[in-house]
């Protein structure tokens, strides 16, 4: 079955609540090809057209809302963002269960991969539909990570992670159910000013 024939919905949960402490400024607002990284990322996720896009904001939420005010994505705020990424994942899943109960799964993504594009997201969903695997992760730097798709059968495990943990815990605990889609440029993330300077060169 191809993506265009698939009747289900696979919403995308974009985790963008962190304070970018290692960057020293909001990485979500860093200009990438003339657009704030947050805006560029959301545009790619919306264009992938796999389902609704849900953004979890936290630190600097008001400034971030301003750059995405015209986006069709849902925006939710995590006032416990300092507790860690797991708290944002759980908040996002609560929203999906409430507002999109027909969701067949969820794609969890982050806001520091400047090379993330719609075609990679679509490749993840196509692999999910063809492979019968219940987790489709991105492969880079000899590791598996996000963006990653989790079938709804993994929602209970995702809701039980600790606040400080991320989705990788569920990937590692269910490795026999994982297939990876190569995303070599996923290794490039913007965590520090040096990362950003290198990217711009």
Please, could you describe this protein's structure?
The protein is an alpha/beta fold. It has one domain: Spore Coat Polysaccharide Biosynthesis Protein SpsA, Chain A (Alpha-Beta Complex). It has 7 helices and 9 strands; from the N terminus they run βββαβαβαβαββααβα. It has helices at residues 37-48, 61-67, 85-99, 118-131, 155-159, 168-173, 193-200, and strands spanning 12-16, 31-32, 35-36, 53-57, 74-77, 105-110, 135-140, 143-151, 178-182. Strands 5-4-1-6-8-7-9 form a 7-stranded mixed beta sheet, sandwiched between helices. A two-stranded antiparallel ribbon has the order 2-3. The longest helix has 15 residues, at 85-99. The N and C termini lie far apart (41 Å). The model has no long low-confidence stretch (mean pLDDT 93).
Could you say which overall geometry the principal axes of the C-alpha atoms support? Answer: globular
Task: Report the mean per-residue pLDDT as an integer.
Answer: 93
Helical residues, percent = 25-40%
How is the biggest beta sheet arranged? 7 strands, mixed
Radius of gyration: 16 Å
N to C succession of SSEs: EEEHEHEHEHEEHHEH
Query: N- to C-terminal separation?
Result: 41 Å
Architecture, CATH level 2?
Alpha-Beta Complex
Structural class: alpha/beta
CATH superfamily: Spore Coat Polysaccharide Biosynthesis Protein SpsA, Chain A
- CATH topology, which one? Spore Coat Polysaccharide Biosynthesis Protein SpsA, Chain A
The number of helical elements comes to 7
